[in-house]
Batch of 4 targets.
Target 1
Amino acid sequence: MPKNEFRAQLELGLARTALMNKDWADAEQRYAAVLERYPDSKAAPEALYWKGVSHYKKTNDHTVLGEMPEQFRQRYPDSIWALKTAAWAH
């Protein structure tokens, strides 16, 4: 595995740990960091998905979920994670 992909997967794992511990703010921040540092990685679409979920859990603001399908159409349209957001489309 290329170093950048490996690093992205490691950071994705740290974000997942924060999510599982219900530390929504830390999880959102960590997922955002994966997106910023590794936008073209295989981990990026998953990070975008869970960043949105973390934000929702942190704020209870469901509008972020409704915005996600468009974000995926623009950035990662062929990702399995894009399909997972289809239920949230307006």
Target 2
Amino acid sequence: MRGRGLLLGIELVEDRAGKEPARDLGMAVGKRALEARRCLNIVSRRTHAHIFRIAPPLNVSRAEIDSALAILDQALTECSGRA
């Protein structure tokens, strides 16, 4: 994870040691989050589907951030098979 200010990048990997991109998981999580009405990962190519760029507006509320993080957590849990 890396970021500055409100801009945050999260990279999904198959395992932490090998750092192989988890593109299928990223696509599934992005789709699930979109179904929950949060656009957390809009990418034009599958090659970047494992990277989530979170860039809320400057006037984002704490409630909106909490909602987005809850949806991301739920999508990750459901899509990774840990549900």
Target 3
Amino acid sequence: MQILRQIKYEPSRVLGGYTDRILRVDLGTQEIAIQELPPDFKNKYIGGRGYALKLIWDGTTRQTRYDSPENILVMASGPLAMSPDSPEPVNS
């Protein structure tokens, strides 16, 4: 495996399950960027599903096809997902 691109990353503080930023990766240009989100973003678009829907809405048009190289893929976890600081899940 060959590393094509990398960036320096400092983990952000997690408050209420959110870091107020997202990682953007352009597979075509191999660009990687960390995007800071406005503080009210998490209140308007709650959780991973809300983030994903907003990002897809903004990143596509009516003409975007499912198999188009311009289409976007969003992987979003909600604030209840496991993080390194979370306790281990309890099996019932």
Target 4
Amino acid sequence: MRRVFEAQLIRYLIVGAGNTLFGYGCYALLTFLLTGVVPYAYMLAAVLSSVINITVSYFGYKFFVFRTNGNYLQEYLRCYVVYGTATLVNLTLLPVLVTILNLFVRPPEYAPYLAGAVLTVGTVVASFIGHRRYSFAPQITSHAGGGGP
């Protein structure tokens, strides 16, 4: 069981590194493209990139990390629960962190990029636990009647 966990953790770190780079790149690109077009562009970028990143992450985790069969919609929706929770926390903390970083970062236009990077670290740790224990957890089925398997 320990080897399974270790192999799974290594695969998670590989996929997670790619997802993190892709996710942050998507956020940074959207922030860049939307800045000057809409107010609080970094907030809209965070929401849009989250939708894209959750979908990309789901496929990597399902087929490479946790290697589950079936349950496509259920696992996809569970990924949204795990990442959705992290996204809500990030959306709450992002403007606070950007405001604080604006006091220290020069030019202040870099603050949303740095804030996004900082929040990404917490998401990586929390998402592994959430995906392992919830999104892609083995399904336990109960048998009616209390008989054997």
